[in-house]
Design a protein that fits this description.
Length: 355
């Protein structure tokens, strides 16, 4: 049996060694963590992307609030996000929007991307949409009345916002809003800009209502030009906790040439709307739908449209809808009155011309 003093000394020495080991181990961890953080903050996007992915993944879509369309005549604050140069319908839609001040307190316009077979497409589409919005405002005698911003190119990664002045504009206007006075974001093109705003600043969620034209093959497939233009962005919207109105109709908004010829006598804007039809032969067909016009008509007069609260499906990469009760509920617009829509547009144009 050893001396008790020697035994205590041995125990103390072991404890001191253990403490030293612990200090060295903790120091090692701290140095490693600091190096790791420094390394990734220098790389920037690596850490940001991972953190954002975790932040977005934690959000619960099941508790998203189902939007309510305010009664006709009640004003709403709105940003229009439009691929104005993509198709003729955006032009007619913007015309109806800017001629409806009793409904819209317009905060501004964001020019959206598109990718079709016409000139000024793809990488040039943002500038083309930007210029077209300016042209329409000018034709209505409203040049420089509202901010017009360029939106983003399509997203590259699932959780990486595509940056632009338009996205920052949406975020800034949203953060000025409250749940009682939300910002409506009406999308008539790809969902790039709203998805990017949401990914960049998820706190916009309870301050905005997203109203998007996807016109899908409900309930089978989320197939539409606006979806295909940025599938990642569309999936972000469907899978988010954003209050979301899916505008899912409008193909039948035909307008015979004889009907739009009446617009010609309604000032520069009416003339521009009709004569734009001569830019492409299919714009003149009696079976040409003026799809996006329906979104605006439905918002100006909700009584023209049919609505349903429905489960929000997941959207698979092949665009198949999956109803799994995981994404909460949304408001879906599934029909719009064709005659009422054109009566509304005609009345607005005549009012403008009489001023
Ligand atoms: Ca459009």
């Amino acid at each position: 049996m050893g001396h008790p003093g020697l035994l205590c000394k041995g125990i103390n020495t072991r404890m001191e060694n253990m403490c030293r080991c612990k200090i060295i181990f903790v120091s090692f961890l701290m140095i490693s963590w600091t190096s790791h953080t420094t390394l990734f903050s220098q790389n920037g996007q690596g850490t940001d992307y991972t953190q954002r992915r975790e932040m977005i993944s934690r959000r619960d879509s099941r508790i998203r609030e189902v939007p309510k369309i305010p009664p006709k005549g009640e004003r709403i604050r709105v940003i229009f996000d439009t691929d104005a140069k993509n198709e003729i319908d955006d032009i007619w839609a913007i015309a109806l929007a800017i001629l409806s001040p009793e409904r819209f307190k317009i905060e501004g316009f964001v020019a959206a991307n598109f990718d079709n077979s016409r000139p000024e497409t793809g990488p040039d589409s943002l500038e083309a949409s930007f210029k077209e919005i300016k042209t329409i405002l000018s034709k209505a005698g409203l040049a420089n009345r509202w901010p017009v911003l360029r939106g983003s190119h399509p997203m590259r990664y699932k959780y990486e916002p595509s940056e632009s002045e338009g996205v920052d504009f949406i975020i800034n206007k949203a953060m000025e809003s409250t749940p009682d006075d939300p910002l409506w974001i009406v999308g008539l093109g790809t969902a790039t800009d709203i998805a990017s705003a949401y990914l960049k600043e998820p706190r916009i969620t309870d301050r905005v209502i997203v109203f998007w034209h996807f016109r899908t093959r409900w309930p089978e497939k989320c197939w539409n030009f606006n979806v295909i233009g940025d599938v990642r962005a569309a999936r972000v919207v469907f899978h988010s906790d954003l209050s979301f109105v899916l505008f899912d109709t409008g193909t039948h908004l035909y307008c015979p040439m004889s009907e739009s010829e009446q617009f010609v006598s309604c000032g520069a804007l009416g003339k521009y709307l009709h004569e734009y039809r001569y830019n492409a032969s299919h714009y003149q067909k009696s079976t040409k739908g003026f799809y996006d016009l329906g979104d605006i008509a439905a918002l100006v007069d909700p009584g023209l449209a049919s609505w349903e609260v429905t489960e929000c499906p997941e959207v698979d990469w092949d665009l198949t809808y999956k109803f799994k009760r995981t994404k909460g509920s949304i408001l879906r617009c599934y029909d719009i009155d064709r005659d009422g829509t054109y009566a509304l547009l005609g009345q607005k144009l005549r009012t403008l011309a009489s001023k």
